[in-house]
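Why should sequence recovery work at all? Because a backbone constrains its sequence more than one might expect. Tight turns favour small or flexible residues, buried strands favour hydrophobic ones, and helices have their own preferences. The token representation captures these environments compactly. In the example below, the structure is given first.
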């Protein structure tokens, strides 16, 4: 008679984490594994997927698909993989969604039948830097879900994707002021966001890490957007920083399923109307738009 699977013991289960320098930043994967050997194998697989995305879509890499498009695409259509075509098509949708406040650096002609891209403006260059973190976290968590992982968080720079919860408790995403990071990388948190099963993207305004306000009275130091997927969250966060407080908040408020926490030039937090949980220590009056 064949033996059944060995019962799991408490010692076998646990949180596991791996991180690596990828995609121009540090990529981190944390997951719960009932079986640690199985968890280790899953971590190896998901880090492999992040490395693949780094190689395929980082514009700085000479062997990336983006480099090929930027080298040849001003002269002729360039055939790309189906995955790359879908990613760029989605990026164009997000450019339109944000009224151009989020940019991919150039205008493109897409041919779905040929799976090809062509840059239509002389000197234009395609960049997906604003989306690649959100895309990588999205792909990684989908892979984890297919592997049966119920609880995980994948972070790439300012983007993270939450899978499930933290075993009965929400994940906690910490917001910090980008000003002064060069002097105090681990300053006190501005807000603690209890979240689960969402994507989060935080984008800092230019120059804020150098300790200067940016953008005047309506400018932002940073924008954090919570959405159902990483691409949407990243694009809306970039757009909000470009647009400033009033227009950036209006853009997020107009997108169903998205919420924002914006940090203005004076260091005050503002929440979109659908999001009012910042953590127990926060002054709610200060945190409302």
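From this structural description, the recovered sequence reads:
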């Amino acid at each position: 008679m064949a033996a059944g699977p060995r019962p799991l013991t408490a010692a076998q289960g646990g949180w596991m984490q791996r991180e690596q320098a990828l995609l121009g930043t540090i990529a981190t994967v944390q997951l719960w594994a009932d079986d640690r050997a199985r968890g280790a194998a899953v971590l190896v697989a998901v880090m492999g997927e992040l490395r693949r995305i780094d190689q395929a879509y980082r514009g700085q890499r000479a062997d990336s698909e983006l480099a090929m498009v930027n080298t040849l695409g001003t002269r002729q259509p360039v055939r790309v993989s189906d995955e790359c075509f879908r990613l760029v098509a989605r990026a164009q949708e997000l450019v339109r969604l944000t009224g151009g406040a989020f940019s991919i650096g150039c205008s493109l002609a897409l041919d779905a039948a040929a799976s090809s891209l062509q840059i239509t403006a002389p000197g234009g260059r395609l960049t997906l830097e604003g989306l690649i973190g959100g895309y990588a976290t999205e792909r990684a968590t989908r892979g984890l879900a297919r592997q049966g992982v119920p609880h995980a968080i994948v972070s790439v720079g300012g983007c993270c994707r939450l899978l499930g919860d933290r075993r009965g408790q929400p994940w906690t995403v910490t917001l910090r002021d980008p000003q002064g990071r060069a002097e105090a990388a681990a300053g006190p948190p501005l807000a603690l966001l209890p979240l689960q099963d969402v994507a989060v993207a935080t984008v800092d305004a230019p120059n804020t890490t150098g300790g200067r306000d940016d953008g005047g009275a309506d400018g932002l130091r940073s924008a954090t957007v919570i959405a159902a997927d990483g691409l949407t969250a990243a694009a809306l966060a970039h757009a909000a920083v470009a647009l400033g407080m009033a227009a950036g908040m209006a853009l997020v408020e107009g997108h169903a399923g998205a919420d924002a926490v914006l940090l203005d030039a004076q260091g005050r937090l503002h929440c979109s109307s659908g999001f009012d949980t910042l953590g127990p220590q926060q002054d709610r009056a200060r945190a409302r738009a």
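A few observations help interpret the result. DSSP finds seven helices and 13 strands in the chain.
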